[in-house]
Request: fold
Amino acid sequence: MNRVPLEGKVLNENARVAAELRERFREHRVLVVNLISSPGSGKTTLLEKTLENFSPAEKVAVLTGDLQTENDANRLKRYGFPVKQITTGGTCHLDARMIEKHTADWDLEKLDLLIVENVGNLVCPSSYDLGEAAKIVLLSVTEGEDKPLKYPSIFFKSELMVLTKTDLLPYVPFDAAVAIENARRVHADIEVVKVSCLTGRGMQDWLKWLEQRRQTFLAGLSQPVG
Amino acid sequence: MNRVPLEGKVLNENARVAAELRERFREHRVLVVNLISSPGSGKTTLLEKTLENFSPAEKVAVLTGDLQTENDANRLKRYGFPVKQITTGGTCHLDARMIEKHTADWDLEKLDLLIVENVGNLVCPSSYDLGEAAKIVLLSVTEGEDKPLKYPSIFFKSELMVLTKTDLLPYVPFDAAVAIENARRVHADIEVVKVSCLTGRGMQDWLKWLEQRRQTFLAGLSQPVG
Reply:
């Protein structure tokens, strides 16, 4: 099916808006990360535990995408930080225009960190730049070790792979070392943290990664956009 | 983003090819089912256990879709039935043309059942008719009970929901009754079977469903295409 010409046009337009967003986020010194995974890999749960760990003084906000329902925003609003749901209707990914629209009335000066939770989809969101500083892919240990090989684009484009639901490792046929090896066959430099949101194990590694990424981001602001 | 005009054209063309396929499958009395789920919900494992349960005399074939790798076909070929991998490159779903192309050299007279395993994606495959008699959605118990509400299209269009990985129920915060209730809010008549491919529990319900669906299909062949 020949969808290339229109897809190219759509992606060019998206890239243009994303570049503007990126510039805006840099101006206001807001680190933006874009969380991508299959449905049910634990993006929202990771965010719940992340927000729970933050002090109320932390300047963090969340945009959370789904085809339907406000469920995720309702779950995340309980922690007292600004949260907005982006309901895409049928669209299988977030795009830069949606981020532009939903951040238009936010005072970015009041933010240090914006976490975007994409629609649950391991394929399409990888094509849409949202102006983020970093993409992060989640893979739950129930999904199988070969996912990085089957869905290489998102693993190639992500700085970090978060292996989630590690508490289930005793009950599933999943070898974390093999999964990491597969991810590194696609993207040699991908970083990895392993977390269990149920037990809290690994949460500090994840929070440390976020903090260090913010430091790198701020240090990079003196350089031109890459 | 205005993608509607081209998407409409693509879907119309897909529907045309799918209608031809459906007619061809009916002529040759082949029941075709289209398995759809998130990546890692257990489609390939369910197929492994299904083929393992079939007698060698069973006239079944499998088409299995992925963005990359021949992993699934290699796993499924061990059971001695015809299996073909459809590698889509970047495309996030199977379409009717791919099915047409990959079944072109098969003698459908020699088949009773064709199982199509779609690309792992709970969104996009729901829009593409493959000429199947029935769509089947898999949901693993690790994915959360609200998935039918967040991804309603595929649950609305599926005749059956297979709840997979039920052996993990003791270790995950998942209430099967709530998941089923959510699926039925979207699609009141959806049928449900629960399986654990690890323990084999529920496999007979699934095989029975397939057999009964085949009987309904054959009984319906005397009627015009609906």
